[in-house]
Amino acid sequence: MYERLAEKLKTTSALKWFPGHGAEESWIAEVEEELGFRLPPSYRWWLVHYGNAQLSGGYILTIDAPEHREYYDGDLLYIHRLNKAEEWWVCRFPHRLDLFVPDSDELYFFDTSTRDKQGEFLIMCYDLMNDLIDKYASTFAEFLERLIDERS
Predict the structure, then answer these.
(1) 3-class secondary structure per residue, the chain
(2) What pLDDT digit, counting tens, does each position of 43-72 carry?
């Protein structure tokens, strides 16, 4: 199902990832329980098989071991907890789950209000300079492929 993406990951120089650092299923289940919903299938696949990546000075958020989660700013749940602690943020972005915050004027997030029949969420791009939000990809796999293509 993800063969094309796996092939791109083998040959890209834009994305740096480290084999053998995938998330354990129990970590993913714990995060999903706290979030109150299941993560998209393509993102779950990424977490289990790859788990981590750096691109353009930022990390694609992952799920780290629970004992490190409170201190690692590359962890999806850690960042989500920080965001949820801000009342203004919750009011403005009730369905936003940050995914990738590169060293630039944009960020990418799952729109958790848009689950499709396959369980995927839209990935949105937030242009911080212009305060504009646009659809970037229909699945996490599409998001990753597009990032690799644009930055290779």
Answers:
(1) CCHHHHHHHHHCCCCECCCCCCCCHHHHHHHHHHHCCCCCHHHHHHHHHCCCEEECCEEECECCCCCCCCCCCCEHHHHHHHHHCCHHHHHHCCCEEEEECCCCCEEEEEECCCCCCCCCCEEEEEECCCCEEEEEECCHHHHHHHHHHHHC
(2) 999 999 988 888 877 889 999 999 988 888
